[in-house]
Amino acid sequence: MKFFNKISLAAIAVIGGSLAGFAQGVQPSQTPLITYDTQFHPTLAKNGMVSSQERNASEAGLSMLKAGGNAVDAAVATGFALAVTHPQAGNLGGGGFMMVYLRDQDKTIAIDYREMAPAGATRDMFIGPDGNVDRRMAFFSHKSSGTPGSVKGLVEALEQYGTLPLAQVMAPAIKLAEEGFVVSWGLEESLTRYQKRLKGNAAAAGYFYKADGSPYHAGEILRQPDLAKTLKAIAANGAAGFYEGWVADKLVATMKAGGGLITHADLKAYTVKHRPPIEGTFRGVKIVTMPPPSSGGVHIVQMLNVLEGWDLRNMGHNSAAYIHRVVETMKYAYADRSKWLGDPDYFDVPVKALTSKGYAASIRAKINVNKATPSTEISPATKLPEESHDTTHFSVMDKDGNMVANTYTLNFTYGNGMAVAGAGFLLNNEMDDFSAKPGSPNAFGLLGGEANSIAAGKRPLSSMTPTFVFKDGKPFMATGSPGGSRIINAVLQVVLNVVEFDMNVQAATNVPRFHHQWFPDRIFTEPGLSLDTRKILAGMGQNIELAPVGGKLSVLGTTQSIVLTPNGMIHGASDPRRPGGYAAGY
Ligand code: DON
Asked: Closest Cα to residue 482, out of 91, 48, 36?
């Protein structure tokens, strides 16, 4: 009791209005709502918007909207263009998830084009002779690649929900690969930083560095003629241009030479799954998001359900009281993730239970709003009520209210760093998203068990969370982020910033974020939380530290979001946390 008094006294002294007001039951109107809207303005448009991590790719999508295409046409054009201009994560050799909202049918489809474990994959394939996970093999070998899904996913999305021919939608990507594009400061910086990873592989070194081995500089032109040939094969033959024929031959030859697993049979067997999305509500808005094999959608809904029980708005954005409640909620969600989430075709994921309001209430009841519960005292639910470095996200909205939220990846930045010689594309290392050994964390520090063990044909559990929000039955928001395990919490906070704190989408994107994933038992924050707030949280027993600057954790996600405002204006927000992003509207 004494301890709690001390906390609330400190809170009153330090953050005045927000926490103190809440503690004393002051009426909401006395707490000013801080929205930051005057400092940060979104990109405005009326007819359509594409927000992605690279300008040429956003403009490729926008050109489809201007040509009369719909959001899916634009998304597929952006997806193929990113494979050329944003090789860190844009890809042909990886996989991902696309959420499509069709306004005329008022229907959302979740397209799962996640990589599949090749037929030769086995449960213990990454366990070394010493009984521990062989990280080099799990991260940087040919065996780390799952059978790619991106090409089939993008092509099928276009066939089923687009309006323009594949060749037209792929034309910008082919041009960018064949004629080249101007290297940005961001790409120069990235290619310089990742030299070791890419130069270990002769094909990748040849594609991304000059003949003398030096990196391209900003302002210079990067041409990718082999990639252009592959893109042309796809434009001419559809997905068969990648999964069959000479491109497939080259991929399989690369696998054979490097000891990888992907065969012609695996490529032939690759299937895209169209899954029903996860739905939830928060304060009357509808959340429609990605189902398993992503964990993101389940946990976004689960966390919003828990948080709905508190008046967060009147605690103040990023106040200690707010952060504490959100962090405690995150711990429970990530604990459940470790046990209950996996590929639904192989493991019965209890989606209904995890996303139920009742289960959320039971979590809320366990949370002490004044004191941190150490992660060691939090376990995944043993019994439920009846019933996953560089990735990239883009969002599209068209004039008719159709939306796309797409997140796809090679897993690490430039995947496993290996390219397919002659075909110009990089390979993923998504097999590390499986749980190679129970209790042994993956590259993102995520723990897992049986639900996410390796098996032939299975899809590794993901954190990618492409998400829509609907308000009054109308499309309102499309969002998503890269960031490995941090994705779910980044998306959660952007949604809360818009829905709970009424921020415009650019402000909601820019304000500082925080992250807790159960283990390690630590809140990572971005710079920008006051020292006072951090001290209060520490006083409540939270382990809080700045996400290391210059390291991978220095930013928590890079969101690309679009909001349709009640007056019909489309607001786009490309996250400034990484260079080169661009919201293109008209
Ligand atoms: O699917 C996943 O959860 C991971 N492969 C995503 C990796 C990622 O976001 C790396 N990011 N910045």
From this structure: 91
Asked whether 156 lines ligand 1 (CB < 6 A), one says no
State in Å: Cα 503 to ligand 1 middle.
27
d(CA 519, CA 537): 18
| Beta-sheet strand order (sheet of 474-479) | 43-45, 570-574, 560-564, 474-479, 467-471, 285-289, 278-282
Is the domain spanning 1-180+223-512+558-586 CATH 3.40.50.1460? The answer is no
- Render 99-126 in DSSP notation, one character per residue: EEEETTTTEEEEEEE--B--TT--TTTT
Judge contact between 231 and 258, C-beta under 8 A.
no
CB 462 less than 6 A from any atom of ligand 1: yes
Beta bridge partners of 111: 98, 274
How many angstroms is it from 294 CA to the middle of ligand 1? 11
Index of the ligand 1 atom closest to the CA of residue 485: 3
Structure confidence by residue, pLDDT tens digits, 412-459:
999 999 999 999 999 999 999 999 998 888 888 888 888 999 999 999
Alpha-carbon gap, residue 234 to 92, rounded angstroms: 10
Distance CA 238, CA 222 (A): 26
19-76, pLDDT tens digit by residue?
333 333 334 444 567 778 888 999 999 999 999 999 999 999 999 999 999 999 999 9
Q: What is the 424 CA–ligand 1 centroid distance (Å)?
A: 22
The structural domains of the chain, with segments of one domain joined by +, span 1-180+223-512+558-586
Is ligand 1 within 6 A of the CB of residue 483? yes
Q: What is the pTM of this model?
A: 0.92
Structure-token pair, residue 342: 């996996």
* CA–CA distance, 496 with 277 (Å, rounded to integer): 20
Q: Is residue 85 annotated as part of the catalytic site, yes or no?
A: no
Q: At what angle do helices 166-178 and 150-161 cross, to 10 degrees?
A: 140
Note whether 542 and 523 are within 8 A (CB): yes
Residue 86 beta carbon below 6 angstroms from any ligand 1 atom = no
**Which among 85, 289, 391, 465 is annotated as catalytic?**
391
Minimal CA–CA distance to 270: which of 124, 436, 393, 145?
145
Would you tell me the crossing angle of helices 55-66 and 166-178 to the nearest 10 degrees? 150
